[in-house]
Amino acid sequence: MATSATTLWRHADFLRLWAGQTISRFGSQIGAGALGLTAILVLSATPAQMGLLAAAATLPTLLIGLPAGVWADRLRRRPMLIGADLGRALLLLSVPLAALGGLLTMLHLYVITALVGMLTILFDVAYQAYVPTLLAREQIVEGNSKLGVSDSVAEIAGPPLGGALVQLISAPWTVAWDAVSFLVSAFALWRIRTSEHAPAQPESQQRFIASVGDGLRTTTRQPVLRTLLVSTAGLSLAGGIIGSLHSLYAIRELGLSPVLLGTIVGIGGCGALVGALLAGRITQRFGVGPAIVVALGSVSVTALLIPFAAGQWAVPLLLLSQIGDVAWPIFFINELSLRQAVTPARVMGRVNASMQFAAAAAALVGALAGGFLGETIGLRAAMAVGVGMLICTSMWVAASPIRALRALPEPDGINNSPTPAAASA
To answer: How many helical (H) and strand (E) elements, i.e. helices and strands, does the chain have?
Structure first.
């Protein structure tokens, strides 16, 4: 493990992890949009069906989300990551193969999306717990920032390329790109040489249900984690509404082509790249808490433009709404770093799973609500409801104790509320 925050460029195993995740994120930006476009363009999905498709990605998390945290704390995490990548690759490859044979249906997409979502929660829970085992404490923000840069670069190039590929080779075959990226990620993880210590023996013998409860208690009783839990749920509820309808809204309500939609999202990725590159400096200058509060507020303000897009102003307003993407990586990098810093290592996987569980439950409700609202009050009004939820969440975070945090707290303060004095120490 590296011991200095300035040595990540010489940290071979982190570079392998970073390279694999960069390619995987790139593929996911191409493939995730292609799945939705497959439903819209190939199977003529309705708003309700798009809501169900979005819900299918989160429903499995309610079943295995909390157990996944226990597994991440009891088992070695790298094999879990490799297995999840390989499984997702095989599942996604079934989409173009089914389309080739004329067997593709919405039910197929629901099932594949659900299974991929199940493996994604396993990967994410183990991944968020695995990164701190590779890096020293003072490297966490830098490491998350570099990984955030990869997400932003993928968001810039992925959607435009995905849109072009959809029109060139069809939506189902574009999904295959995502499958290949997961194979590359699995290979990069396999190449990591840092040995991973097995969990402590007493913890591994703890009863399964009690082990799940330990993670939930830690998440709900610690003030910082509790605040992050509620904000995660709020953002996921808003994201479930907006995300389930965004492509449908852009294509059917505003008349955008897949290429133009992908280009707009890609331009937003340019802003996300800027935010990821600036996240470390902004955090050092203003502190973790203020960075989280201001970033989330900025996202909420720019999102207001989405439901107002119409006519000749549709594309300009959607482009302006993408300015908020500058703030998203600043928020997520600081939120994840804060969560990793205050969580004891022994329950890291279970706390991450608790967050994922809350996010999935809220996203499921949001996706179903988005489909229902889209059918009953229209796509534009449904998008406005989602933006309203986003604004309410940002206001709640701004009023929370997180706003007073300047530096990452220590895990040994797990039962203590952060105070301005302690936070700035």
So the answer is: 16, 0
396 with 231: CB under 8 angstroms?
A: yes
Answer whether 81's CB lies under 8 Å from 189's CB.
Answer: yes
3-state secondary structure 355-381: HHHHHHHHHHHHHHHHHHHHHHCCHHH
Structure tokens at 305: 């433009």
Burial 164-181 (b: 16+ CB within 10 A, else e): bbbeeebbbbbbbbbbbb
Supply the pTM of this predicted model.
0.63
What's the Cα-to-Cα distance from 227 to each of 222, 367, 421, rounded to whole Å? 9, 23, 19
Residue with tokens 């945290």: 69
Residues of the chain predicted below pLDDT 50: 1-5, 202-205, 412-425
Distance CA 414, CA 226 (A): 11
pLDDT digits (tens, 9 = 90+) for 210-269: 777 777 888 888 888 888 999 989 999 998 899 888 888 888 888 888 778 878 877 776
